Amino acid sequence: GLYRRIAQVRGLTWTKEAEAAWRDEIVALYGDGAAEELFCIPRASGGAWLPRALIEARSSREIPVLRWNLPPAFVDQPQTVTQALARDWCEANLTPLLNALDPHLVSAVGQDFGRTGDLSVIWPLVTGADLVRRTPFVVELRNVPYAEQSLILFWICDRLPRFLNAALDAGGNGSAQAEAARRKYSHSRVAEVKFSVEWYRAHMPAFKAAFEGGSVVIPADLDIRADLQSIVMEGGVAKVPAGARNVGQDGGQRHGDAAIAAALAWFASRQDRVPIEFQAVGRSRIGTGLGDFLRGY
After folding, report:
1. Average pLDDT over residues 25-35
2. Which of 37, 100, 126, 144 is the most exposed place for a label (fewest CB within 10 A)?
């Protein structure tokens, strides 16, 4: 009776064929997760890799999730306009949160990249004196063009306290942004991650241990919880299956995007780096051009 009610509310004429098409579309959207999510059939693996109770135990209602969903036509505006709108969004939504952070703590960032269909999720972590990684906020971007995504990522990294490391999804479309971040912040601070069985096997156990040991604090958010619960054991490693899809609170498609961003942020926060304290020196002490650089060789 659900589709009959939907048709009535939308002023549509109910037909058996229309109901079947509506059902098939939803089942296809959920992919491999349809049996469990729609029909309450447990997975053969025996449950989610991260149990709901464990996720909620590490969740805080005080942490905001900032979502910027744009219409497809946004990219057709002049870039001077889109860049200005992105800066305005950052100034209004991100700057107050960044300014409120303790400047003495160290921070890291993870990003799972998406351009259309899937989300881009940027996940900062700030490490306290007690070694607990706390999430100050999470940014979710849908249909945001490449240039504006870079602007937002750099806005965050430039203003985080004692920003040390980033781990960025460098597969597919994410490779360009990961490379741009590497060039801006150096290869020693930016890990360009191309996911593989070896990467999951090496780093996902430590991510789960953070939840079990209370070493991470995340937002209390339905979509983020669902993304984290989409991680399953597959082929002996914990990962988000290729066919795992669900629908977020905004009606858009999700593919465990926040879970991957969180895992990347955790990975970045565990890399050993020493913050560089910058101090300007006189012009007479340093070269100013390409010739000076090449003469060093």
Report:
1. 64
2. 100
Full-model pTM:
0.77
Encoded tokens for 36: 């469990």
Structure tokens at 42: 């447990």
> b vs e for 104-136, b when ≥16 Cβ sit within 10 Å of the residue's Cβ?
eebbbbbbbbbbeebbbbbbbbbbeeeebbbbb
Task: Give the C-alpha separation, 145 to 214, whole Å.
Answer: 36
- For the segment 44-95, what is each residue's pLDDT rounded down to a tens digit? 444 579 999 999 999 999 999 999 999 989 999 999 999 999 999 999 999 9
Confirm if 258 and 140 have CB atoms less than 8 A apart: yes
What digits encode the pLDDT tens for the residues 123-166? Answer: 999 999 999 999 999 999 999 999 999 999 999 999 999 999 99
Kindly report, residue by residue over 225-282, the tens digit of the pLDDT.
999 999 999 888 999 887 777 788 888 888 889 999 999 999 999 987 644 443 334 4
